[in-house]
Design brief:
This protein is mainly β. It has 3 domains: 1-168, no CATH class; 212-518, Tachylectin-2, Chain A, CATH 2.115.10; 523-604, no CATH class. The chain has helices spanning 98-106, 142-146, 178-189, and strands spanning 54-56, 122-124, 211-214, 218-226, 229-235, 241-246, 253-258, 267-280, 283-294, 307-314, 326-327, 336-337, 351-352, 354-360, 365-373, 377-384, 392-395, 406-414, 417-424, 432-438, 452-455, 458-459, 465-477, 480-490, 496-505, 520-523, 531-538, 543-551, 555-558, 561-562, 568-569, 575-584, 587-595, 602-604. The protein has a 5-stranded antiparallel beta sheet, with no helix packed on it. A 4-stranded antiparallel beta sheet has the order 4-5-6-7, with no helix packed on it. A hairpin with a 5-residue loop joins strand 30 and strand 31 (568-569). The longest helix is centred in the N-terminal third of the chain and has 12 residues, at 178-189. It is extended and about 135 Å long.
């Protein structure tokens, strides 16, 4: 039965009086039924020859058959659309009821793939109007996208060069990656801030800088077995002595804790301080400071005093299982363990009080120790272990800055020279290290002509303590000498807050002297009408201006604190350059920049 030409939709009549093209499921002016795409039909249902082989989705523009004279119907149709109310939008036949229409519509082919939705489409001819191609023109079924133009599709249809199979697929808006953009914005808005308060300027690690070994430890001593095994002990805040082990002088792991009270049935011990590890024959020896009382008695007692004990452990397994504490030179008139407060009748230097240190000079073994002089204060003495009656005095306080304290001796050798380092001052205040150098251990006494500074405490512009250094020990690894020492921490108000152990390589001058840990002496030729200031550049390239206001002097000692720049701390090893500014009448008239290697003790300049 012939179908009547459908009436044009309201407001959409094209020029020439032709009926507009109907949408999805409708008939074109040529009244040719569209052929389903290949993935919507069975292999035994080929399209008849001459049928269109492309289709568009429901809401895309449908172009008319070539030569029909119809105009394209862009966008969504307007006006009454009763045909959209049925599920498949099949056109109604004359005299056809609703049941027949549904039955006929259900027979139309649709996808059999379970993962595909029930998608319907129409074919459109290959002729297209001029203008920009549709965004969906390049899309189609998988086979059509990969099929060369002019080839034959399954079912016998030929895909012409101008044809394309298009399906409307919703485009997914790309996700904006905002995190990198925000990070970049923060990097621009937040430049590095150098030196606010008594903080440390951040820089790349220096090969000459210090690294934290053990937090909360003080009075360190280290014993080297070989380049791959070290034992470290020190003073903790508890009534025991921790023993650490390391294979690289970087990472230290707790091996065990030694509490002498657990191994003595008669006495209790408290205030265990300043251990010293040594090896004698086939056993390890641990010297340590403690106060001793009878078992069950409060410790320390009013009549007790710190003195030096020792304990031994087999070296078979390197497990440091130390046993019962013992006295040194008991019942003799030599320097000895003396638990009672005060001095022995044969001299105060016969009472071993603090900081034992055992050292071999190649021919003799020496013990250095600290004892209490009622007049001078804490004094360092020594004796050879093979002749304990031969006592020599090594160091005694002579300067007010030492606060009547010389203590914590340690010795090492290099290139035929012996070095003795000891600490001066109170560990909660002006604590620092001094050293002597000589060809013989017996030459290193308080009468030695030269005592050099090895470290100095750090103070803020108003005198508040920032940190101090002291009680060191020395070892080597791979031919490089390292020192381990404790650093005293202080609050922003200058109150003592604790101590930590750091490790740092030792460097030497050409004459054999040690380079200091934290000072650099700068010298130049000053003019009478000028004043000077010092700027410091860190290893990361930042300049700290007005680090020190020098005045009219021709030299200055930089000790890691920029008192003119908010008490910023710049480690000696982290400094890359110094700039000396000459100022006349408030104007900078000359500057000199000196590159710095991170370890030298002095720089000379011409400004």
């Amino acid at each position: 039965m012939a179908r009547p030409t459908p009436a044009p939709r309201r407001g959409r009549r094209p020029a020439g009086g032709q009926a507009p093209v109907r949408r999805y499921g409708a008939w074109s002016p040529t009244r040719v039924r569209p052929c389903p795409p290949p993935h919507h039909r069975r292999p035994d249902e080929p399209c008849p020859p001459g049928q269109p082989s492309t289709y568009r989705s429901r809401w895309t523009t449908t172009w008319p058959v070539a030569g029909s004279g119809a105009v394209p119907s862009p966008g969504r149709p307007r006006g009454p659309q009763p045909w959209r109310r049925t599920r498949h939008n099949a056109p109604r036949e004359a005299g056809e009821g609703a049941a027949e229409r549904r039955k006929r519509s259900s027979a139309r082919p649709r996808s059999r793939l379970p993962h595909r939705p029930d998608r319907r489409a129409i074919f459109r001819p290959s002729v297209r109007p001029t203008g920009p191609p549709s965004r969906t023109a390049a899309r189609g079924d998988v086979c059509a996208r990969r099929r060369p133009r002019g080839s034959t599709a399954p079912g016998g249809n030929t895909v012409s060069e101008a044809s394309s199979l298009s399906v409307h697929v919703p485009r997914r808006r790309p996700r904006r990656r905002r995190i990198p953009m925000l990070l970049g914005l923060l990097a621009l808005l937040l430049p590095p801030v150098v030196g606010l308060g008594a903080g440390t300027a951040h820089a790349d690690p220096s090969p000459y800088g210090r690294t934290l070994a053990v937090e909360g430890l003080a009075d360190p001593d280290i014993y080297k077995v070989d380049d791959n095994l070290y034992f470290l002990s020190g003073t903790s805040s508890q009534n025991f002595l921790p023993i650490y082990t390391s294979t690289d002088l970087v990472t230290f792991s707790l091996l065990r804790r030694y509490d002498p009270s657990e191994y003595d049935d008669r006495y209790d011990y408290c205030n265990q301080w300043a251990p010293e590890l040594d090896r004698r024959n086939d056993e390890y020896v641990l010297y340590f400071v403690a106060a001793r009382v009878d078992k069950g008695t409060p410790c320390p007692a009013s009549n007790s005093e710190q003195t030096i004990f020792y304990a031994t452990a087999s070296d078979a397994n390197n497990d440091m299982q130390f046993g019962t504490p013992r006295e040194i030179n008991a019942d003799t008139e030599h320097p000895r363990t003396y638990v009672t407060k005060g001095c022995p009748s044969d001299g105060c230097d016969r009472a071993l009080r603090l900081d034992p240190s055992v050292y071999s000079d190649g021919s003799r073994r020496w013990m250095h120790y600290t004892w209490f002089d009622p007049v001078a204060g804490s004094v360092v003495s020594a004796f050879p272990l093979d002749d304990p009656a031969d006592v020599i005095q090594v160091a005694r306080p002579t300067a007010p800055a030492e606060h009547r304290i010389n203590e914590a001796p340690t010795l090492f050798s290099r290139d035929g020279r012996h070095y003795l380092v000891y600490s001066t001052g109170h560990y909660r205040g002006e604590y620092g290290m001094t050293y002597m150098m000589g060809a013989q251990v017996s030459e290193l006494t308080w009468q030695h002509p030269q005592h050099w500074s090895f470290s100095s405490p750090l103070r803020a512009h108003d005198g508040r303590m920032i940190e101090n250094h002291g009680h060191n020990t020395v070892t080597d690894r791979g031919g490089q000498l390292y020192t381990l020492y404790h650093v005293g921490r202080f609050t922003s108000a200058g109150v003592f807050a604790g101590r930590d152990v750091y490790v740092q390589p030792l460097t030497f001058r050409g004459d054999g002297l040690l380079n200091t840990l934290n000072t650099v002496a700068l010298r130049w030729s000053a003019t009478g009408d000028s004043t000077y200031s010092l700027d410091v550049q860190t290893r990361d390239g930042a300049w700290i201006t007005n680090c020190l206001a020098i005045g009219a002097a021709s030299s200055v000692i930089f000790n890691e604190v920029c008192t003119g720049a908010g008490d910023t701390v710049v480690r000696k090893a982290d400094a890359a350059a110094f700039r000396i500014n000459r100022v006349v009448a408030g104007e900078t008239v000359a500057t000199t920049t000196l590159a710095y290697d991170g370890y030298s003790d002095s720089l000379d300049a011409t400004v």
